[in-house]
Amino acid sequence: MARIPPKLSGLVKSGAVVAATPVQDLADFSAPVATGKTGTLLGSQALAPGVAAELPSPAAHAVRYIAVDLIDPNPLAPRAVYTPEMIQARADDLRTQGQHDPIHVTPNPARPGRYIICDGWTRVQACLVHGTLKTLRAEVHQGLTHVDSAIFGYQQNEGRKQHCDLDRAMFFEKLKGTGLSAVQVSTLTGIPENRLSMYKALAQLPAVVVQQIEKAPELFGYNAGAQLARLCPANAAASDPGVVKAARIAEAFAAGDKTFKWLKAQVETFLAHKPRTVLKTGANFRYPEGFLRGRGDTVQLELHIDQPERQAALLEELRTFLRERGIVEFSGATVEQLPVADQGTDPGQA
C-alpha cells in the first residue's frame, strides 16, 4: 500500500516548510473576500451583510515627497486624541531616526495641488509643530472618498494598536454622520452592532468629562464610558450635578490607581442617593378673569369671559397654541356654541 504523503499544513506547523511569501494583508486593502462570505470593505464598496464582492487587486501607488504644509487633515479622522507628548515623541523619532515608512495621502478634490491624509497624521503634526522635516515621503492613493481614506487609516491604526476606545467612539459617530447605518458601520469596522451603542455613549459624554478622559484615554474603555454616561442627562449643562460627579469620577480614574469596579460603584452610589426633583403644585397664576394652575401632572385653566366674540377668539388661539406644542385634539372634535345664558350657567366659562 502506497504511503500517504504528509499534509502541507502539518509541515508548516512543524517548521519543516517555511512560507516564501508574506502572509499578512497588503497595506492598502483587506484580503480578497471569498465567494458567499462578507468581509470588511472600504467605504465606497461597503455592502449589506451577506452580499459577496471581489476586491480589486492592489495597484502600485506613486511615491513622492510632499511638503507637509500641503497636507490637510481627514474630516473623518479615525483618531481624535493627539496629546502634545505624542507629537513631541514622534518629532524626536523623526529627528533622530528619519522617516522609515511613507505616509499615505489622497488628492484633495476640493483643493487641487493639496492632499488629504489617510495614514500618518501624527508625523505630519510633528513636522508642522516642531519643524522636524519640511517634506515627507508619501504614497498617493487615487480616487478614494473621505470614507475610503478614513477606513484605510482606521485599519492601519488598528493594526498598530494605536487606537483607544475614545478614538473609536468618535470615529464611529463620524461615520454615522455621513449617512451610514449602524449595520454598515459594523460591517466596515468589524465592531458588533450591539456594542456600537456603548461606544456612542462614550462619544456623547459632555466636554468636561471628555477632558478628564483625555488625560489618560488608554484607561477608559467603552464600558467605563457607558457607566459615566448614566450620570449625564442628554444635553445637560456642565453645572448639572450628574455631569459634575461624572467629571470627578473620571479625573480620579485617570490617575491610574482605580479599578473599573471602583468606577462602577461610584456611579451606583451617586444614583442611589441622587435627590429627586419635587414638582411644585398649587395655583401658579391668577387673573381678574380666573386662574392658570399646575397641580401634579395636571394643568388647569379657568377663565370667566362674558363676551362671546372674545371667548371664541381665545378658544381658537388656545387650540392653535396646543397643536403647535404637540397637544392634539381627538379626531372628530367639534366646537360647541355655548349659550349666552341658560338657567344660571356662567356664560363663557372656558
Automatic annotation (TrEMBL):
Q: Which GO terms fall under biological process for this protein?
A: chromosome segregation
Q: Where is the ParB-like N-terminal domain?
A: 64-158
One GO cellular component assignment for this chain's record is: chromosome
What Gene3D superfamilies does its record include?
A: Conserved hypothetical protein from pyrococcus furiosus pfu- 392566-001, ParB domain (3.90.1530.10)
- Fetch the SMART domains from UniProt: ParB
Cleavable signal peptide: none
By its UniProt entry, which InterPro entries does this protein fall under? Chromosome_partition/occlusion, ParB/Sulfiredoxin_sf, ParB_N
Short name of any one Pfam family annotated for the protein? ParB_N
Q: What is this protein called?
A: Chromosome partitioning protein ParB
